[in-house]
Amino acid sequence: MAIAFSVNGRAVSVEAEADTPLLWVLRDDLGMTGTKFGCGIAACGACSVHVDGAVARSCSVPVGEVVGKAVTTIEGLKSADGTLHKVQAAWIAAQVPQCGYCQSGQIMAAVALIDAVGTPSDAQIDAAMTNICRCGTYPRVRKAILAATGEAAGTGEA
Amino acid sequence: MADNPNPELEYPETVAPVDKPKKKGVKRRIFLIGSALVVGGGIFGVWWTDSSVRARARALTVGEGEHGFATWMKIAEDDTVTVFSPHIDFGQGSHTALAQMLADELDAAWDKVRIEQAPSDLAFANAALAKGFLPEMVGQTVAGLLPDAVVGMMARSMPLQITGGSSAVRFTGEVGMRKTGAAVRAALVAEAADRLGVPESELTTADSVVTHAKSGKSLRYGALAAGAAQRSLASDPVLKTRDQWKLIGQPIARRDIPAKVDGSAVYGIDFTLPEMRVATIAAAPVRGGKLESVDEAPALAVKGVEKVVKLDDAVIVVAKGYWQAKKGLDALAPTFSDGGHAAVSTPSIFAAQGKLIAGGKADNEGGKGDVEAAFGAAGAKLVEAEYRVPFLHHAMMEPFALTGHLKDGKLYLWGGMQDPLSTRTKAAKAADLGVEDVIFTPMIMGGGFGRRFPDLVEIIDQVALLAKQVPYPVKLVWSREEELRHGTYRPQSLARLKGAVKDGRITGLQIDYAQSGNAEGEVPFIYNLPATSRRHFAYQSNQIDGPWRSVNATQLGFYTESFMDELAAAAGADPYEFRRRHLPAGSRHVKALDEVARRSGWGTPLPEGTGRGIAIVESFGTIVAEVIEAGIKDDGSPKVLKAFAVVDCGTTVNPFNAEAQIAGGLIMGLSSAIGEAVTLDKGAVVESNFTDYPILKLADAPPQIDVHFIESGAKTGGIGEPGLPPASPALANALAAATGKRIRNLPVLAQAKA
């Protein structure tokens, strides 16, 4: 069946069974490989995207459930002119990634957290950032989130 | 079909193969590299190559307007320097560090330096690595007698292109990158001297320019490259001294990171080709078992499924995408034999290991002095304990994925492995092809930690066999469950330790451990005691034990450093002070211990219910001392509050990256100690996914880790692995200090539940 939704502001329509996880529609049908496969059971967060602004683990979201919704992936975080999202910029400044495989999901989770609460507390970071990183980048993930929100909490001047 | 995100990686052009070395004096072999299992090896030819090898390297990598030097680098006429790394980078940051080392000696402008993966080709076998490892293989004396050309030949015949043993910077970097940079710089200076008609001694180099101060004339490297490339390179160029370094030691940003924050990095699992199909696999649940029967119909009934392929010990479903293949596979009910291993379980392995040690017939023994005499001496206080650790899964975040296509008699492969050259060898054998007919394109990978050494990677054989049965390109992807249940684990191991303490000092220490591999010669014993004995009892289950980040130093470190605290308690001594008195005064070990004690506030009061633990382990040429501060949460699980690491690896090439490697290793060590265990029942792995194989998450990791480097200038050590081994004993020692309860079996959570 044809399933229509939007990805990073672009309308898409794919021929897929409704039970196909959004992850595999993104990767195999749309060729958007920035969203990663880690566990297939929503346990690791490597596949995190935003659906209507809320973070979702796309390996466990049937594509049939996103009909008419707005999906944002890691590829859609940059602004139209190619400027990095402030969280991406903070990630580079803190040199967070090692192997990098989980980092799309980490960044999507961090952006959703900051969008939801503004400047998160350590406890809010602990609660929201449940994505697994085998390289152990957690201290720098925390540091980058705080740095990104420090900017946001600054003068407000661009 | 979506657009191919990686068209530049499609079907690489091939070049006629270079003649293989005629002599077969060096066979592929398995040898221990700083205690890492290393298979074969490439020697990246510096100028340790003959002209045919250099010609082939140029044909593969040097284009119009570019000039190649040995097989390590090229300079373009626009001044761009491209460094070819014979090591893969799976997150450890060695590509940037290696380029820093070469560029520093070359006096290249950093913004004009690029880093590329060396092709998976014999011309790029890693001679520097072989040269670095030689003393560990054949001894310093013999190694010193071998000419470089012979070393180069050895690397090609092994063939050597491996990443492991924390070896990139300490061997390839120190031997290959720095020498190449210095030799090419000398050739550029010689070329400039001839062109300007001035003595070389009047020339200086900086930022990719040769300058003659007296005349004010200068020449860019790009303008000198063509002439310099015709010159022969000095075999023993003068290297910079520490005070002359401009790039080595600097916290330079890693070049691979921008593509890892915007989703554009293409990993092996992301690779696609036109008409490509995706497959997934279920191998026999019991390792050693065979496929007995499978009715293919239920899979073929799933929309999108195209084919079911049976292997000797596995069934594969091929479909239009991963999800369809997985659905098809899940619809099957294959039956497998158990290979005669139905009685193997976690308890049965521990029982067999305990019996072996009790039998007393060791397979390998190290140590000195008479421990029995020490144990029997009057007034000696004896301490005995048994320790156990489980199998551990690597849990690289990117599950195995390898794409293959048999096209016009050649097998093309794309994916991430820790040794590109031996990937080709293994695939060729499985597909019954010549090595020259296997073309492998190495790609970046989502972790590895020792899991991707080709000799232990079944997916290479699986894809080689699968590609022969389908006319189109096919990407085989392992599910997480397949990944966890068919690992090559850190071995399950049991140890019995016995020590004698007299007058506040250890007089004898015996460590008996049973597991598959011997750790002697790999994990140095650092304490200076009158009598020691370390005995290995070889035990092999039906599992494949593989190198897991830091290899045998994880469990040996846990045993020894936990038991040191038990002996300190018997002596009534402070654990830090007790270690100190058994190490040579003024040694690097003592300095590391002192520094970590100072930074962690050792001895200062802590809140009720929390404790500090200290541990020091040397591995891969690097000394790491760690202090963990921890307590127990309401649910009985450990809570790590603070972590400190002091590291002496001689020289840190990139301190910012080195800090990340140490912190990451420490966290991986904590993760394994707290919650990780692969257990067996009826010969098969019980755990299935991250739900029952818990990896430490951000909330349970220390919020900050204080990492400090002692720049001792000693021989450069590794950085990818040594941060891990002290973490588990430091945690166990902290918990013992906090609760009075000694943890002797890992993981901690299993004990808390018991």
What does this structure look like?
The complex is a heterodimer of chains A (158) and B (754). Chain A has 158 residues and is of the alpha+beta class. Chain A folds into 2 domains: 74 residues, Ubiquitin-like (UB roll), CATH 3.10.20.30; 67 residues, [2Fe-2S]-binding domain (DNA polymerase, domain 1, Orthogonal Bundle). In chain A, a hairpin with a 2-residue loop joins β1 and β2. In chain A, α2 crosses α5. Chain B is an alpha+beta fold and 754 residues long. Chain B has 3 domains: 230 residues, Aldehyde oxidase/xanthine dehydrogenase, molybdopterin binding domain (Aldehyde Oxidoreductase, domain 4), CATH 3.30.365; 149 residues, Aldehyde Oxidoreductase, domain 4 (2-Layer Sandwich), CATH 3.30.365.10; 310 residues, Aldehyde oxidase/xanthine dehydrogenase, molybdopterin binding domain (Aldehyde Oxidoreductase, domain 4). Helices cover 31% and strands 23% of the residues of chain B. Chain B contains 21 helices and 31 strands. Chain B has a 7-stranded mixed β-sheet with strand order 12-13-10-20-17-18-19. In chain B, strands 15-24-23-22-16 form a 5-stranded mixed β-sheet. Chain B has a 4-stranded mixed β-sheet with strand order 3-4-5-6, sandwiched between helices. About 4% of the residues of chain B have low confidence. Chains A and B meet through α1, α2, α3, α4 and α5 of A and α8, α10 and α19 of B.
